[in-house]
Every structure is written in C-alpha cells, then in structure tokens.
Amino acid sequence: MQDISGLSGLFISAFISSTIAPGGSEVVLAYLVNQGHYPIGQLLIVATVGNTLGAMTTWGLGALAAKKFPIASLLPKNKQKALALVQKTGLWTLLFSWLPVIGDALCFAGGWLKLAFWPASLLIMLGKLGRYAAVAWLFN
Predict the structure, then answer these.
(1) Residue 18 belongs to what domain range?
(2) pLDDT (tens digit, 9 = 90+) per residue, 75-88?
(3) How many domains does the chain have?
C-alpha cells in the first residue's frame, strides 16, 4: 500500500493555499512529482480537488459576507477591485482564480455576486488544474 502522507500533505497544502494563507502547494506538488512515488495524474487530482475546495470555501465566505454586509464599499481595496472585475466580465474571470493574490479575491467576489455555484466551481477547477499541470510538466 502506498504511503498517503504525501498525498494528504499535498491536499492540505492546496486547500490552505486557496483559503486563509498564502501557501506553497506548487512547491509540494513539484517535490512529489520530482520524487516519482505517485502517478502524476493522482497528484494533479489531489492538488486540484484540494485547491478547488479551498477556493469554493472562499466563494462561500463571499456569499455569506454579501448577506451580512451588502455594501461593497466595506470590502478591502483588493476585494473591491476583484468585485468590479468579476461584475464586468462575469463567470469567465474565475478561470484566473489560480493567480497569486488576486485569485482568492476573485473567488470571494464570485460568492459575493452570487455567481452560479456549479459553473463557478467548474471554471475555478479548470484554472487550478491548468496551473498544477504546468507545474507538474515543469518538474517531471
């Protein structure tokens, strides 16, 4: 049986990287790819699912914040910019949720704007999968 500590560490790192703290899930993925102990597809799935669930947690926090604080001017400046961008461009902006710094704000804005959950989840997942696939390709 394969040791799952690497996979669970990757999942936790990916989840946290997409929610409360900047993280190094790309570094963890690169390390695990380089070690060659796990199939790359398995690593991509674990990282993508963890990061997507973290992003959807942020999306949910945005939706909750909109109920409690409906006035967008109460948001910090980076979240106001993300909110304006998502309002202007819509769901497709969430493909860029993988970007550092602004990605979390885009997910928060998507929740704030009550963008449809499943399409938002799919676009966020595709963006994050693309980023992790690029990292895996670079370190394979």
Answers:
(1) 5-139
(2) 777 777 777 888 88
(3) 1
